[in-house]
């Protein structure tokens, strides 16, 4: 398929590379010049990348970025062909997704929201899990592309439901990790060996995929960004905004958001979101040996 891939960040570059490896004709664009994908053509603007594309795949930072890349100056909307599909793997506002989808529908273009989970390693290995909203026939057309980048697709309903589900997923990830970080901080302060605590967690009903994935990095004090704190903070804010629109109270997540705000003020926004642990340790006066953040 002819694919315009817009956004070559931590996830996007590997995703576009996997599309090329699967034999698709890929043209890439990135806001910051210089990022390349071997075997892909490079376009100077989103509009140029989109020219003649059957699918426009987005993986950018936030709602404003999606709007700018599609509808801004030199945006993809200028070159969209009737019958094309926009697939958005960014994590953005569900309500904004519906507005964007309505605008491109006037051009005969479909919108599929396809945020994913699996982090940097999943993008590299082509094992992402896609959380999808959109019409079934459009998702069917995209299956060869999903297969090149991921291992599973969950259709959650019509357009917008993929984004809504992704926010609910990230709510859980943020809160599960903060629970682990608080437990680890308390245990360390009380003199419990952190490696033993992790081994115990993995052997009991407390275990979780979040802890299983993050614990090795945390124990090595490696906060290199697999998922930057600033992006998780953005997703938490999106979730709270969506909850406000739906008149749902999320008191636990509001507290976690305050921790992210303080961690950002500490200068940790470009580290992995696991670095919120260092803020808890600072408050507790915990001294930890190992690799520096």
Strand-helix topology:
Elements lengths: L1 E5 L5 H10 L3 E5 L11 E2 L3 H5 L4 E4 L4 H9 L13 E4 L5 H12 L4 E4 L2 E2 L1 H7 L2 E6 L2 H14 E8 L3 H29 L4 H9 L6 H11 L9 H18 L4 H15 L10 H9 L9
Parallel strand pairs: 1-2, 1-4, 2-3, 4-5, 5-6, 8-9
Antiparallel strand pairs: 7-8
Describe this structure in words.
With 293 residues, the chain is α/β, with parallel strands linked by helices. It folds into two domains: 2-158, 3-Layer(aba) Sandwich (Rossmann fold), CATH 3.40.50; 164-284, Orthogonal Bundle (N-(1-d-carboxylethyl)-l-norvaline Dehydrogenase, domain 2). The protein contains twelve helices and nine strands. The strands form two sheets. Strands 3-2-1-4-5-6 form a six-stranded parallel β-sheet, with helices on both faces. A three-stranded mixed β-sheet has the order 7-8-9. Helix 3 links the parallel strand 4 and strand 5 (85-88). Helix 1 runs parallel beside helix 5 (119-125) and helix 10 runs antiparallel to helix 11. The longest helix is centred in the middle third of the chain and has 29 residues, at 161-189. 44% of the residues are buried.
Nearest-angstrom radius of gyration? 20 Å
Named CATH topology of the largest domain: Rossmann fold
C-alpha termini separation: 42 Å
Number of separate structural domains: 2
Which band does the percent of strand residues land in? 5-15%
- Strand ordering within the main sheet: 3-2-1-4-5-6
């Amino acid at each position: 398929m002819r694919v315009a891939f817009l956004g070559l960040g931590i996830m996007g570059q590997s995703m576009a590379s996997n599309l090329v490896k699967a034999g698709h004709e890929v043209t890439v664009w990135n806001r910051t010049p210089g990022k390349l994908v071997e075997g892909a053509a490079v376009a100077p603007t989103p509009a140029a990348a989109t020219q003649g594309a059957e699918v426009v795949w987005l993986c950018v930072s936030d709602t404003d970025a999606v709007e700018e890349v599609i509808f801004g100056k030199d945006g993809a909307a200028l070159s969209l062909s009737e019958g094309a599909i926009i697939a958005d793997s960014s994590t953005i506002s569900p309500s904004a997704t519906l507005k964007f989808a309505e605008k491109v529908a006037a051009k005969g273009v479909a919108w599929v929201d396809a945020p994913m989970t699996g982090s940097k390693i999943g993008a590299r290995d082509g094992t992402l899990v896609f959380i999808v909203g959109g019409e079934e026939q459009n998702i069917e057309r995209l299956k060869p592309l999903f297969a090149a980048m991921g291992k599973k697709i969950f259709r959650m309903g019509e357009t917008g439901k993929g984004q809504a589900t992704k926010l609910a997923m990230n709510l859980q990830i943020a809160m599960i990790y903060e629970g682990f970080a608080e437990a680890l901080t308390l245990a360390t302060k009380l003199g419990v060996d952190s490696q033993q605590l992790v081994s115990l967690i993995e052997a009991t009903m407390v275990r979780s995929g979040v802890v299983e994935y993050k614990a090795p990095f945390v124990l090595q004090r490696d906060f290199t960004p697999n998922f930057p704190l600033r992006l998780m903070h953005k997703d938490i804010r999106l979730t709270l905004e969506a909850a406000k629109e739906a008149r749902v109270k999320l008191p636990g997540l509001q507290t976690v958001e305050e921790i992210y705000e303080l961690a950002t003020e500490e200068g940790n926004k470009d580290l992995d979101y696991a670095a919120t642990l260092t803020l808890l340790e600072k408050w507790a006066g915990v001294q930890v040996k190992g690799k520096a953040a």
